[in-house]
Amino acid sequence: DIQMTQSPSSLSASVGDRVTITCRASQGISYYLAWFQQKPGKAPKSLIYAVSSLQSGVPSKFSGSGSGTDFTLTISSLEPEDFATYYCQQYSTYPVTFGGGTKVEIK
Amino acid sequence: EVQLVESGGGLVQPGGSLRLSCAASGFTFSDHYMDWVRQAPGKGLEWVGRTKKKVNGYTTEYAASVKGRFTISRDDSKNSLYLQMNSLRTEDTAVYYCVRIYSSGFYYDYWGQGTLVTVSS
For each of chain B's 121 residues, which pLDDT tens digit applies? Predict the structure, then answer.
């Protein structure tokens, strides 16, 4: 199975900060990398697919980059509604696997 | 508007069975692969399995942790996805989400709101 390792597992940031979350795959996954946002008590929301493509309706403050095994999610300027847990996912190979999550908290 | 509504969750004893349903609306259900994903309390996301569409023979794939115990099926005439869960274990306790897969990209786009399954004596 492909293991997805996210770092950090949590971070504290202020409104207006630029935040970067990294995700490393245990083997190459081409461009089959997605990111999700989850708020407490809610279902995950799809943010990004194919490394850097934004889902419909997702604001441009979110961006994704990377290739091969190393990927990043960047939030250019944190807003109050962005405090949540973020997960990466590889969908290159079965089983589909997720990173452990990064909780973004208010400083 | 795409909607996925799960139902069927509840409390079940270890060794018992439960069948979850996911009612889809707002899109052509038969055109899409569908997944089940679960989340244990306070934990991360775990893929459960997938059903492909008719042209792919309704082929299914499963996580090792549920293979042989869980069965995914679909009824395109009812726009519904199912998860039959047998031989349930306490570690199967989780919120179960159904997820739509975008037709040509194989990535997730829409999630249901989830249904809670609690396995406990």
Answer: 999 999 999 999 999 999 999 999 999 999 999 999 999 999 999 999 999 999 999 999 999 999 999 999 999 999 999 999 999 999 999 999 999 999 888 999 999 999 999 999 9
Length of chain A in residues, anyone? 107
Residue with tokens 């990377």: A66
Q: Is A34 on the interface with B (CB under 8 A)?
A: yes
B47 close contact with A: CB closer than 8 A: yes
Answer yes or no: do B45 and A98 touch at CB < 8 A.
yes
Q: If 0-12 CB within 10 Å is exposed, 13-18 middle and 19+ buried, where does residue A44 land?
A: buried
Query: Taking the CB of residue B119, how many other CB atoms lie within 10 A of it?
Result: 19
